[in-house]
# Entry
Amino acid sequence: MDETLKQGHGVWKKKLSEHEKKHPPIHKHFSTISNMDVPLICTPEELEGFDYFRDLGFPGEFPFTRGVHTNMYRGKLWTMRQFSGFGTAEDTNKRYRILLESGQQGLSVAFDMPTLMGFDSDSPQAKGEVGRCGVAIDTLLDMETLFDGISLGDITTSMTINGPAPVLLAMYIVAAEKKGVKPECIRGTLQNDILKEYIAQKEWLFPPKPSMKLFVDTLEYCTENYPNWNIVSISGYHIREAGATAVQELAFTLADGIAYVQAGIERGLNVDAFAQRLSFFWDVHNDFFEEIAKLRAARRMWAHIMRDRFKAKDPKSWMLRTHAQTAGVSLTAQQPLNNISRTTIQALAAVLGGTNSLHTNSMDETLSLPTEQAVKVALRTQQILAEESGVANVMDPLGGSYFVEWLTNKVEKEAYEYIHKIDEMGGMLLAIEKGYPQSEIANAAYRYQKQLETKEKIIVGVNKYQEEEKTRPIDVLYIDKTFEDRQKVRIEKIKKSRDMIKVKATLSELKKTCEGTQNTMPAILECVRAYCTKQEVCDVMKSIFGTYRDPGSY
Amino acid sequence: MVSIEKEKGKEKIRVLIAKPGLDGHDRGAKIIARALRDAGFEVIYTGIHQTPEMIIKTAIQEDVHVVGLSILSGAHNALVPEVIDGLKKAGNEDVLFLVGGIIPDEDIVSLKKNGVHMVFTPGASLEGVIDYIKKNAKPHTS
# Structure
């Protein structure tokens, strides 16, 4: 450390304490939204030992702190991918066509609650939920309708589905096949991240162990047959939305990734054969620098994990490629237009953090599913960032900032502490069974809520600058209540017109496969081709694998 | 804080926090459960994926004074009245019914017509929920 600098810093600190006698800080603590204390200023002193090549390197090179692509956004802008779906497949198909015409480059399917939970629209459990939070997909026919008139060989599709992921994947594959799309041209991402369901999102069908078996089945099947399909989107998003801190989101997500890679290797797969088909998904919250630090640290950590822990040889296997979404939980029902500003700040952080794909939330999403106008503003926000702001011209522009590098190091160090703890517990599956990540998240969520109550943390329009709002300042989407009936007619029709002998034969073949140790994907594909419903397939699997109940701790 | 036990004549107020339907968004439900426990109430939390029948059964078994239903999936109109009707049919007339979640204004009106006493929407404070229960929960008449 430069002596002059050290001396200068010392002198300045004295000045500071004098100054603060007259102008005391307005808060007792200055911390990130995750409650991490931050210094007033960072200098080379805080970055002692910083090594450019070890810590940053060049873009597209280990450890990828500065980004995974050599010329980053100059070569390819991030993919603007808005998550959407509601009602029946026909309703959503119309929305998809509008989005593609507005310049969106990929689709991202939101399924309704019954689909996410493996129930058909005519099931008693689906009552009141059909088509509400997403689109209802019961059979292959719905999947075909969903992409009617859309060339599946030319776009990438992301599907947010986890519990019944193998079934929906099979439907997508068959729908694409029927359009004549070649296996190598089937591109997109299946969320398929079952571990985070137990940790945060709670959309599971089976107990953790058989769920992991099904995960590895999809991993193995796609590695062999669909080389350009991303098998999993290892998601911090839902962990964060459930109340985790940025560090917890980072740590638990990477620990999930470690569990998946380990399971693939244990199945006998070569790590380099599938590592490139793992993708990630982060939440981007309000705390600007913390989010940028998290995204940078994530890439650096994953590069080390893949190279040093799993001995992957191909540099592409070391790269963490990621989607990001602005934080749904940060949106407020109060003064909803303010959400446009929040989303803009978050989207900027995602871009400065080097995301490869981005969803920006619409201003009205705490009130209902978004209106077309609100979705358009959200998409335009990304286009303004990309085309007007100039931020896409330069790679990792905050690299080398004393503060951002300090924060990146700190977030990384604390995340490794969690990962070591989880390793000591025997890995993520066992940690989940102990309820460890779940209780860490619940504690953080409760602490934040308390901080809001005491106004230690502020949400504009909610606990400060509130206004009486007599009428809602924006329109909301009104969901047509006929969905449920319309979808029930569709499913009834298909049940009458299909070949029941084939349905029974394929389901019984699937049952046999589930009882054994074989890969279940080929049998699931046959069920889907025979127009078995999603619930018929899931129920067969439940009969062998069992179900799982929320422990209900809080 | 005023003792909840004293207020209701030695009887501690029992609150059931339940999540009906398929919705797994339990952050709010868990925070409310914890805050009510910390405020001195006896809290029973059902966990997620509860059918109306399961909730009714638990409410009767635990002899609760308050039922709080948390829903963020939009299925409130289908599920909430079922719980209320079931409990009323079972003779639990004096239970305080609360709903928390993303509920459009229009639906708040119809839920209240159906017997919901109060709906807490995003931004509601923990203190507000606690005070409301303290003021409105009735001791059992028996």
